[in-house]
């Protein structure tokens, strides 16, 4: 079982201590993971047929689901029937990871020492948290904060006034001024009395040769991770929400927004101020015109534009009538 290096897991917890409907079940769960990553001691969740393809191969011992969806679960995965999967998921996440619903300031921040970071260049007023790792020939700009347990690879350039937390940054990555990486995403469960904050226990992974321009915001994953693939270029003021996966060799222009859990393929180009709704899949080699609103999946090799985004032929025909 891989350890979450950014958030403390206080488990394992007994099933009968978490769910009143299982008073005699003293089995323990060690973690909460998505269907495809869950192991035999983990709790997972299934709230939409959109994720049915991941369900058949899950190794999770228990699964939060609804009465309508329980019939799809494999035999080894015990159903925990609830009315609202995300509400219960949030509750159990809070039990296992009590500090993951709020981004508390890192109390371990200090000025970097030359003895620890011999081959790293720092600007003025840089602060580094506990257990941070930074590779050779990396440059960190002034007034930048790298919080605890973050890893940054070799030959990276991190600009000024950047904040990086809950993230793994690989080699030859450029992050320009003012960008924020790894903060908690926009997740809550609305109720009549209060909006319940959804804990985010994932991280951000930025692969080799990625370039991220100024003033972007990249949220960490909620249960899974947010990921940006190799050689992808991201323009200024782009927002990438929790769990978003962006493939390699993508070109994303300024002020584009990705809602949570969107999956973007390889070699995708997106024009400025376009928006991609949550839980959508955008195929490989897709081109999305500037200002478009993507509200449904797009298959490979498509060119789309407009709101809602449609094929370029349909868009031109509609606007020339």
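Q: What amino acid sequence fits the structure above?
A:
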């Amino acid at each position: 079982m891989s350890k979450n290096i950014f958030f403390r897991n206080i488990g394992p917890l007994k099933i009968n201590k978490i769910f009143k409907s299982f008073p005699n079940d003293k089995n323990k769960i060690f973690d909460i993971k998505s269907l495809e990553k869950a192991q035999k001691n983990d709790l997972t969740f299934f709230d939409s047929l959109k994720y049915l393809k991941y369900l058949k191969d899950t190794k999770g011992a228990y699964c939060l689901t609804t009465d309508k969806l329980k019939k799809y679960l494999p035999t080894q995965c015990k159903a925990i029937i609830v009315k609202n999967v995300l509400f219960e998921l949030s509750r159990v996440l809070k039990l296992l990871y009590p500090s993951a619903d709020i981004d508390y300031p890192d109390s371990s921040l200090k000025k970097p020492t030359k003895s620890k970071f011999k081959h790293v260049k720092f600007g003025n007023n840089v602060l580094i948290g506990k257990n941070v790792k930074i590779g050779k020939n990396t440059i960190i700009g002034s007034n930048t904060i790298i919080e605890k347990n973050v890893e940054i690879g070799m030959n990276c350039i991190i600009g000024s006034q950047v904040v990086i937390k809950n993230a793994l940054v690989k080699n030859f990555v450029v992050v320009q001024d003012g960008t924020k990486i790894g903060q908690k995403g926009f997740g809550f469960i609305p109720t009549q009395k209060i909006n319940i904050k959804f804990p985010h226990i994932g991280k951000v992974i930025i692969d080799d040769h990625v370039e991220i321009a100024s003033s972007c915001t990249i949220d960490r994953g909620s249960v899974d991770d947010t990921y940006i693939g190799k050689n992808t270029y991201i323009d200024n003021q782009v927002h990438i929400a929790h769990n978003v996966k962006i493939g390699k060799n993508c070109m994303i222009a300024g002020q584009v927004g990705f809602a949570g859990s969107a999956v973007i393929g390889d070699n995708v180009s997106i024009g400025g101020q376009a928006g991609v709704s949550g839980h959508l899949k955008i195929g490989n080699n897709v081109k999305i015109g500037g200002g478009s609103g993507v509200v449904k999946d797009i298959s490979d090799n498509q060119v789309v534009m407009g709101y809602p985004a449609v094929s370029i032929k349909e868009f031109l025909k509609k606007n020339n009538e």
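Q: And what stands out in the fold?
A: The chain has two domains: 13-96, 121-319.
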